[in-house]
Design a protein that fits this description.
- By secondary structure, this protein is mainly alpha-helical.
- The chain has a single domain (1-382), classed as Methane Monooxygenase Hydroxylase, Chain G, domain 1 (Up-down Bundle), CATH 1.20.58.
- 55% of the residues lie in helices and 3% in strands.
- It contains 17 helices and four strands.
- The protein has helices at residues 19-37, 40-45, 55-60, 63-82, 93-106, 114-119, 146-161, 163-173, 181-202, 205-208, 211-218, 258-266, 274-282, 288-300, 303-306, 311-340, 364-377, and strands at residues 90-91, 122-124, 136-138, 236-237.
- The strands form two sheets. The chain has a two-stranded parallel ribbon with strand order 1-4. A two-stranded antiparallel ribbon has the order 2-3.
- The longest helix has 30 residues, at 311-340.
Length: 382
């Protein structure tokens, strides 16, 4: 069964034993206290060059240990960069070197991406029970608290709820004109049911994630270095990239593979412009196996062309697109509430970031509106 969540639940502790891994784990667990007391930078600055070495797990090549290390290094690095009044422009070698190493191993840039922030950052409170909002906790936090936890666990549960839609869309993409209306209908219905669950979970965001807290205490830590007015000259990874500044996008839901996969399977096309270029760029931040799944389904799927002659299938197809439109409209509404409106309020806690630029470094309101509207326009007219 296809899923964009890991096949096995993420590790919360390393299997391998090494002082450097124990130190990495300890610092990650202490981040809320370190950020609260302003000691993150001094702690990292006083470490020796190999104090956070990950060489042992690089040799072992266990995907879950690699995921945990990427999670730890990403959170620690972002705490170092964004944990004071103004962002740090140089990341010390002790953290930069292992971060770049493991990022290369995983085929992703050395920046906090959706993969480390969400997909590899959860555990079940009760291992015998299913993934749900009542049974998921986070492995690593920045400041911690209900709002930060809820924001991320909502996304974890969305990924889980979308599994049925992903598998149905995958099967749909393999069908052709020789397959029956009933088979097409069966898979379209599964997509609709799954996406209704996704949207029901997404709507629960305001229950325990307050817009004010999100903007001022959650959002500031997940920015990237590309198109970021606070780091116009990028970030130097000490001893890496020939000490030349690097520019990477920040963590954003656009790095989730769910919607690009469904777009590909259902033939939802986005016009060639900056938004399309940005969405394609986001794939560089996805796990490589997710990118391949999206590219494969885009190449082979002709499902839309096979359902045009059936009123039943046309109606079901349009219902699929309606659920995707609802998701994108909800995203737009949350962006207005959680970001744009909050930017108008005086901020006693720190930076919330630009009101027109998202954590991925884009004019998010404009992009989200276009995304929603393009989905609506591609419904099949009866």
């Amino acid at each position: 069964m296809h899923s964009f969540l890991p096949k096995k639940d993420p590790l919360i502790k390393y299997i391998s034993s090494a002082d450097s891994l124990k130190r990495l784990e300890d610092i990650s667990n202490q981040l809320p206290k370190l950020l609260l007391t302003g000691k993150t930078q001094s702690l990292i600055d006083n470490l020796k060059p190999n104090d956070l070495s990950i060489n042992k797990i690089l040799k072992k090549n266990d995907i879950r240990e690699l995921g945990l290390a990427m999670n730890h290094l990403s959170f620690i690095s972002h705490s170092y960069i964004w944990g004071s009044e103004s962002p740090q422009k140089v990341l010390p070698e002790v953290i930069a070197k292992p971060w770049v190493k493991i990022a290369n191993k995983l085929g992703r840039p050395p920046i906090l991406s959706y993969g480390s922030y969400c997909l590899d950052n959860w555990f079940r409170l009760d291992g015998k029970k299913n993934i749900s909002l009542e049974n998921v906790g986070l492995i690593t936090n920045f400041l911690g608290g209900v709002d930060e936890d809820w924001f991320v666990t909502i996304h974890v549960c969305i990924e889980n709820a979308a599994i049925k839609a992903i598998n149905a869309a995958d099967k749909l993409s393999k069908l052709n004109q020789n397959d029956s209306v009933q088979i097409f209908s069966y898979h379209l219905k599964d997509i609709i049911i799954s996406l209704k669950e996704v949207n029901a979970i997404f709507r629960r965001m305001p229950e325990k994630c307050d817009p004010y807290i999100y903007y001022h205490r959650v959002r500031p830590f997940i920015f990237g270095t590309k198109d970021n007015p606070d780091l116009k000259k990028g970030l130097i990874y000490e001893s890496q990239f020939q000490n030349k500044p690097q520019f990477f996008r920040g963590e954003t839901g656009a790095q989730s593979s769910i919607m690009p996969f469904l777009d590909g399977a259902l033939g939802i096309y986005h016009t060639e412009d900056h938004l399309r270029h940005y969405l394609n760029e986001m794939r560089d931040y996805m796990p490589p196996e997710h990118r391949k799944m999206i590219e494969k389904v885009e190449t082979r799927s002709n499902a839309k062309s096979y359902i045009l002659d059936s009123k039943l299938l046309t109606n079901q197809y349009n219902k699929c697109l309606e659920e995707i439109r609802i998701f994108r409209a909800q995203h737009l509404e949350f962006a207005a509430t959680y970001i744009h409106k909050q930017s108008q309020i005086n901020n006693p806690f720190g930076r919330g970031g630009s009101t027109i630029t998202g954590t991925g470094g884009t004019p998010f309101m404009k992009y989200l509106k276009k995304h929603r509207d393009e989905t609506q326009k591609q419904k099949i007219k009866s």
